[in-house]
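Please check this.
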Amino acid sequence: MIRITARIALDERDIEESFILASGPGGQNVNKVATAVQLRYPIDRAGLPEEMRARLEALAGQRLTKDGVLVITGREHRSQERNRAEALDRLVELFRRAAVAPKKRRPTRATLGSKIRRLDAKSKRSAVKRMRGSPGED
C-alpha cells in the first residue's frame, strides 16, 4: 500500500504498468529496448472523498481517460527502473496535491493609508501633466 494521507492509501496491485518504446535521441538503445513506462491507475478504486476526486480530476487534466483511468508516462531516463520510480513518484505526488484542500480566500479591504497614498500619487501625477500644457491666456 502506498500511503497518501492518514486515511487514504493506494493499492499497488491496482497499478498497471506497461513498458513502451521511448522517443527521442538515444541511438540503438531507444530502438531496441522498451524503457519508457506507462502507469495506469483507475481512480475509482482509490475510494476518494468526492471533493478530493474533483480536485484530482482537475489536476490530472488530459492524463485522465473518459473511463476514469489515470495514465502517467515516464520516459526521462534510460532504464526501466528509474522511469518506473519517476512515474510512481509523479502519481503519488498528484494524489498528494489533490489531498490538500485550497485555502478559502477572505476578501480584504484597502487600508485608509493606502487609499490616501494612492490619491496623493494621482494628484501629483495630474499636476505634472497639467504643468506640461501650454500656458493659458492672461
Observations:
- Strands lie at 2-3, 9-10, 16-20, 36-42, 69-74.
- The chain has a mean pLDDT of 80.
- The radius of gyration is 28 Å.
- The CA atoms of residues 21 and 32 lie 8 Å apart.
